[in-house]
Amino acid sequence: MPYISKANEYMQEAIVSNKICGDGKYTKLCNSWIKERLGSAKVMLTTSCTHATEMAALLSDIKAGDEVIMPSYTFVSTADAFVLRGAKAVFVDVRPDTMNIDEKLIENAITDRTKAIVPVHYAGVSCEMDEIMNIAGKYNLKVIEDAAQGLMSTYKGKSLGSIGDYGCFSFHETKNYSMGEGGALAIKDPSMIERAEIIREKGTNRSKFYRGQIDKYTWIDAGSSYLPADLLAAYLYAQLEVAEEINNDRLASWNYYYEALKPLRDKGFIELPFVPSYCEHNAHMFYIKAKDIEERTKLIEFLKENGAMAVFHYIPLHGSPAGKKYGEFRGEDRYTTKESERLLRLPMYHKLTKEDKDTVIDLIYRFYR
After folding, report:
1. Distance separating alpha carbons of residues 38 and 228, to the nearest angstrom
2. What are the structural domain ranges in the chain?
3. What is the reported pLDDT for 21?
4. Is 315:137 a contact under the CB 8 Å cutoff?
């Protein structure tokens, strides 16, 4: 990887500086890089996207009895952040083309207890944000973007995570840019920055103390420890410096898969990802859809037997034990379960070789022959 030597250099520098805890040099560099990319008022690295979403829930004053609308086809963290505040996760159906929340179904799910909408930008492809923001404005709701997979992606020229009130990003090792475990919170409203700093610093005004704005710090709000180690930020920053290069490499692999598999799509054997014309995606993943769960299972087994790893993705939350306890599917499940059972992800990572892509593609053709 082109960034590994730089990452080693930066991490060594962090170690030698004896400042490997939160908010060191590389944390600040990452914050600035992401803030400039997004155009947000403030960006703060966190220990995970889960924690970024928890911070957004606290900043949005989500309380027991509130309802938060989201898709069921998402990772558990999307719901957990609000369930921890005592809120109910209200699940609505997805669009079968993008696997994103169906913006046309959101309004019917709103009650007088609804406090927020959480669009999840699946595979780095944007939800229909204009419509979602219009609904939020009409009902005075917060919009918290789950952009865990969305760094470098845009909607009508706007960076994902910068459109709603808050944007939550992941830098887990499975993401395009990684710090092992980590995330970031993007804030749109400058008036929320000070409270966000307090929540992130265990409920104290420690950030103001380090800036010399006060002579001692104290506990003034509910919060937690959401600061990642600067050592991890050093590893991430080396990737952000070559973010365009990584993005272009992944897009090239994504496009290679797409062009090679189009004949199978045209013959009706599989479906390929759909990216609306007004969206730019970041090639976070490449998936195909088989006819049904039985065919998908056989295809996954066939690929595995021949040395290629393909996996399915989320199991919808509303069917899980915790989903039934803490959530409710509102409306008809026309697509969430059916489409999730057809989807499988092909290998996709930075510096994926042509030989490996060709192996996967050839095996898929062999299966359908």
Report:
1. 20
2. 4-240, 243-368
3. 86
4. no
Residue 49, sorted as left (phi over 0), alpha (psi -120 to 50) or beta, turns out to be alpha
Please state which of the four CATH numbers 3.40.50.720, 3.30.450.180, 3.90.1150.10, 3.40.50.300 is assigned to the domain occupying 243-368.
3.90.1150.10
- Does the predicted TM-score (pTM) go above 0.90? yes
Taking only the tens place, the pLDDT of each residue in 308-348 is 999 999 999 999 999 999 999 999 999 999 999 999 999 99
Concatenated DSSP letters of 283-300: ---EEEE-SSHHHHHHHH
Query: If one looks up domain 4-240 in CATH, what number appears?
Result: 3.40.640.10
363, HSE (Cβ side, Cα atoms, 13 Å): 21
Distance, CA of 269 to CA of 291 (rounded, Å): 7
Q: Give the pLDDT confidence of 271-291 residue by residue, as tens digits.
A: 999 999 999 999 999 999 999
Distance CA 217, CA 233 (A): 25
